[in-house]
């Protein structure tokens, strides 16, 4: 099932993140997909707020992963720089995906085979004619 | 007084580095893995982000650093190592090596914050530099304005709320197809461009006047590129680069000088990879001169990740009695001023 949301500004994308966080129980993994500047980090900032994280969420592009303590622990990944998904084993990837924590993986489509079954897929699509509008699709992957 | 010889180790991200530094200022060696021809020795190219690479490189790099310095392990007075922030797997390799060495030599172990290490790079290039001063630390992973009250007291005055400055360069370079790393590529293209061709946003926060935000700037540039592409118009790459670079420099310079003025310091240092950007250095120097503030930055090799800066910071920690015990662990999201 795909849920579809429309946002008209970065702030609305943030607020959608806050709202979506309520559905992310401990142990949830999220693959977050969208072009550069689509609003992935804005959405994660909202999710973090919704999870009770007080720290400022900054981009994990350089460090691959940043972790934050909230009502649950949030691990925020950016795997853009990963060329070979196997490299993720080197950073202790499997340790992060445990039943207690929430993982959000930006550019998760690049490492889809590494995501746990049942991961939530969130796609942020631009509207080519209106630069501030976004279509956000939330889809639960089939559990097999 | 007897000289203090520190062996520094740095493995927080992609570089494996070891260095020997005397009294925090004099570099006897500074070996960085990318400069050592170890690919042949180990047979083939190793993956970019693999901590396994650090495992393979760490001992040869330390050996090379000692050999180049002409110093034996027994002559080393203390071992300083980066314990955060960075990639956990990468950090652990350096931390484990430093602990093993310090333990077997029965010498003090010193933990160093990577960002505080970048700041210390200035002590190497500028022998007369002493605290207090204000430092802008900007790289692919960090953007901070820090007040250095003493060699071991750091206070963050401003930080990025989203992307790091260097990261914004990398992402814009990617959108414009200029390749990686983005900083030098954009600087090259910007030389032929007009910095006033486009007015990109400069973000300020009322509640935190020295904080940064580069995400909005990135999005504004990307939106403009998309619109031009849709209309089928040619991209004025040089003008975009020059205008983007000016927007970043404006914010970094204005905030740093604002912080320096508020703290009434006569010295600003720049550190980290973005300190290699010549427009930023020139613009910062020009604007600071108007306020009678001098601007210092490390030599180019010390702007990137290296162990000499870690050994320098480690020297001052040791002087201050800050040594670590054998329980030292990597702290991937370590903040400035938490090393204590």
Automatic annotation (TrEMBL), chain A:
Family annotation (Gene3D superfamilies): P-loop containing nucleotide triphosphate hydrolases
GO cellular component: cytoplasm
Lineage top rank: taxon: Bacteria
GO MF assignments: ATP binding; metal ion binding
The entry's keywords: ATP-binding, Cytoplasm, Magnesium, Metal-binding, Nucleotide-binding, tRNA processing
Subcellular location: Cytoplasm
Coiled coil start-end: none
Main subcellular location of this protein, as a coarse class: cytoplasm
GO biological process terms, semicolon-separated: tRNA threonylcarbamoyladenosine modification
Protein family according to the UniProt entry: Belongs to the TsaE family.
NCBIfam families reported in the protein's UniProt record: T6A_YjeE
Protein name listed in UniProt: tRNA threonylcarbamoyladenosine biosynthesis protein TsaE
Organism taxonomic ancestry: Bacteria, Bacillati, Bacillota, Clostridia, Eubacteriales
From TrEMBL, chain B:
Reactions accelerated catalytically: L-threonylcarbamoyladenylate + adenosine(37) in tRNA = N(6)-L-threonylcarbamoyladenosine(37) in tRNA + AMP + H(+)
Alphabetized UniProt keyword annotations: Acyltransferase, Cytoplasm, Iron, Metal-binding, Transferase, tRNA processing
Entry keyword annotation includes Cytoplasm: yes
Residues bound to Fe cation: 114, 118, 305
Cofactor note (record): Binds 1 Fe(2+) ion per subunit.
Cofactor names: Fe(2+)
Family the entry assigns: Belongs to the KAE1 / TsaD family.
Function description: Required for the formation of a threonylcarbamoyl group on adenosine at position 37 (t(6)A37) in tRNAs that read codons beginning with adenine. Is involved in the transfer of the threonylcarbamoyl moiety of threonylcarbamoyl-AMP (TC-AMP) to the N6 group of A37, together with TsaE and TsaB. TsaD likely plays a direct catalytic role in this reaction.
Protein name: tRNA N6-adenosine threonylcarbamoyltransferase
